[in-house]
Amino acid sequence: MGQTGTQGRRGTLETYRHVIGLTGPLLPVMSFLARLPTATIQFGSVLLVARTSGSLAAAGLTGGALAVGQVACGPLVGRLADRHGQRTVVLAFSLANALAIAGLVAAALAGLPTPALAVLGASAGATVPQIGPMARARLVALARGAGVRETTVGAALSFESTLDEISFVLGPALVGLAAVTAHPGYAVGGAAVLVASCGSGFALHRTAAVTRPGLAPTPPTRRTSPAPAPIPRSVHALRAALALQGAMFGACQAGITALTQRLAQPDQAGLVYAAMGVMSAVAGLSMAALPVRVGLTTRWRSATAAAAVLSVPLLWTDGLPALYATVTVLGIAYAPHLITVFGLTERVVPPARLSEAMAFATSALVGGQALALALTGRLAESYGPRAAFAAASLAGALACAIALTARPASYTGRADTPS
Fold first, then answer.
1. What CATH superfamily is the domain 21-218?
2. Closest CA to 324 of 270, 403, 394, 247
3. Rounded distance between C-alpha atoms, residue 5 and residue 247, angstroms
């Protein structure tokens, strides 16, 4: 048993080495640093405006406008990248995003009125260069072009989802640290510098050439045509599942914030999020070790069922140790679900529209989270943290229902191909 486990770990490490070998070690570093600002500015904009204006309403409006801008324009950025290649599009949006973020910081420090801050927040969200979706699309294209096994493609998606998880844990933590030690403007301003430098580096990296229209490698089983093929309707169930996962996460955030405030330990909320994110990242990396006979639809259904079941104990959680334990265990289900749904998306959509599909999927996740956070935040204020946790469980149950009722045959006949 011990020898089998050791061989499994070695096999997993070898798979991830192969993934890194597709890009070289520099690209993952640049893509991680370039996507960190996305995780920073959402929380950072709220703290920044709250600090400079003294108004939580203005802060919430600015943060909400930023989320709306990102959700609305994310698929457009992906579509432009599919049509014109990532290099030009990501470079332009990285620089535009840096200017928008810098403008928001300057406006907040100057004390501009709320409408102006909201417009600048929306601009900062609309110009997000979508590094996470672009990195997924690029890595999949490289893997398909190299003719690697499906296990390596799955590991590539696991790797990218893990980078996302780490960034969304580290980003808010850096903002919180800056707010406590100095001023949240430093963290938000730093995000502008990062997206300008590392976003540009990601755009100009040699691997961007694989995303040029007509040059992206595709597997032999897929046919290409001069005009991009339409995205099949079966992808809508995947997007709905991601929106519900985002809603589940947003509701959990509201519940965690409300409970830590009730326990007179509000500073613990960020650490609870971090514990959940770390466990999720570990689970995501472990996905590459799953037996190859476990297909993607089976993984999808298992992950959603686990999320629905593991969220139920939150309804009876009323102390900090129990909150840490419950939320940490719940994190086991998050990354596996993300990885699996992105894997299914890659199999459903035409290769020529992969960046758009990945950006749309990310927008669904972000939109579900932002909407749920806004709605369940009010629920938690009126009825306590249990109401927010109940909404999270409901979202998990609905996501599970979608996974159980979706037809595997609709996923191009490759959905159950192990990855």
1. MFS general substrate transporter like domains (1.20.1250.20)
2. 270
3. 36
Nearest to 167 by CA among 43, 266, 71, 317: 43
Spatial CA neighbour of 189 closest among 81, 68, 108:
108
Q: Which two tokens stand for residue 99?
A: 């200017």
CA dist 76 and 373 (Å) reads 24
Highest mean pLDDT out of 4-18, 64-78, 257-271:
64-78
Same fold, 21-218 and 233-410: yes
Beta carbons of 211 and 137 less than 8 angstroms apart:
yes
pLDDT digits (tens, 9 = 90+) for 215-268: 544 444 444 445 566 777 888 999 999 999 989 988 888 888 889 888 988 768
Task: Encode pLDDT of 20-34 as tens digits.
Answer: 888 888 999 999 999
pLDDT averaged over every residue in the chain: 84
Residue 222: half-sphere exposure toward Cβ, Cα within 13 Å: 20
Tokens read off for 166: 């780490």
**How far apart are alpha carbons 318 and 259 in whole angstroms?**
7
Distance between CA atoms of residues 122 and 133, nearest Å: 20
CA–CA separation, 206 vs 202, rounded Å?
9
DSSP calls for 188-207: HHHHHHHHHHHHHHHHHSGG
Q: Provide CB contacts within 8 A for 76, sequence distance 6+.
A: none
Q: Among 249, 242, 240, 246, which residue's Cα sits nearest to residue 388?
A: 249
Mark 61-90 as b/e (b = at least 16 C-beta within 10 Å): bbbbbbbbbbbebbbbbbbbbbeebbbebb
Q: What's the gap between Cα 4 and its chain centre?
A: 33
Cα three-residue angle 180-187-163, rounded to 5 degrees:
110
Give the C-alpha separation, 297 to 291, whole Å: 14
Query: Counting beta carbons within 10 angstroms of the beta carbon of residue 374, is it exposed (0 to 12), middle (13 to 18) or buried (19 or more)?
Result: middle
Is the pLDDT at 417 greater than 50? The verdict is no
Q: Does domain 233-410 have CATH number 3.30.420.140?
A: no
Instruction: Domain ranges for the chain, please list them.
Output: 21-218, 233-410
